[in-house]
Amino acid sequence: MEDKGISFSEPSVLSARREEIRRQAIMRRDLLSGEERARGSLLMTERILGHQLFYMSDIFLCFVSFGSEIETRDLIKEALRQGKKVFAPKVTRLSDSPQMRFYRVCDPGELSAGYRGIMEPSGTSEEYLYRVDEAEKTMILMPGAAFDRRRNRLGYGKGFYDRFLADREILKLRSVAVGFSCQMVDSIPEREGDVRPSQVLCF
């Protein structure tokens, strides 16, 4: 995947502010009880399953939850049960820097630990290729470390989703970021190259 010409270097002050917001949000997320985590994940699953974008989509690009992230496995299973084509991200090194691509998942049992221990598809299945006609029937679900009310999303510092969505305008309109309510903050300082999801839903 090409870099799209976007630079993700940050001035030290901006970088420090973003890193502190990221650290605090992840710490709050890590401290959620099992009951709070299960409730938020269930509410998210129900909301996405009833979401118009999901209902109208034949293709579903969905992250595989890792660590204390909101749980997506039940959502992936239900999307497969409904006959949608499900794709999950895999980080590969096709150039000097790691790049994120999406590969088809037909069974969650196919996933194995990859980049930083995150469960990923093997990379030998069908790869998602952006096409304008198909993008109108595609939904992408995004993770994040922190979010604000202006739909700013703070990821984990590598800019994978920002680069992936940079020139995919229709897919941007069909992007939803999800997390727990404790990840919502007053304001995230913006960085050149950031891509705002169409919606941010926290539970």
Q: Any overview of this molecule?
A:
This protein has helices spanning 12-30, 34-49, 52-55, 73-81, 132-135, 160-165, 169-172; strands at residues 59-62, 85-92, 99-105, 112-113, 119-120, 138-142, 146-148, 153-154, 175-179, 184-185, 199-202. With 203 residues, it is an alpha/beta fold. It has a single domain (12-156, 165-173, 184-189), classed as NagB/RpiA/CoA transferase-like (Rossmann fold). The strands form three sheets. Strands 3-2-1-6-9-11 form a six-stranded mixed β-sheet. A three-stranded mixed β-sheet has the order 8-7-10. Strand 1 (59-62), helix 4 (73-81) and strand 2 form a beta-alpha-beta unit. Helix 2 runs parallel beside helix 4 (73-81).
Measured by DSSP, the beta-strand proportion falls in 15-25%
Q: In CATH, what is the class?
A: Alpha Beta
Spell out the CATH superfamily.
Answer: NagB/RpiA/CoA transferase-like
> Distance between termini?
33 Å
Number of helical segments? Answer: 7
Largest sheet: 6 strands, mixed
| Widest sheet, order of strands | 3-2-1-6-9-11
Q: Average pLDDT across residues?
A: 93
Query: What level of helicity do the residues show?
Result: 25-40%
What are its keywords?
single chain, 203 residues, alpha/beta, Rossmann fold, 6-stranded mixed beta sheet, 3-stranded mixed beta sheet, 11 strands, 31% helix, 22% strand, globular, disordered N terminus
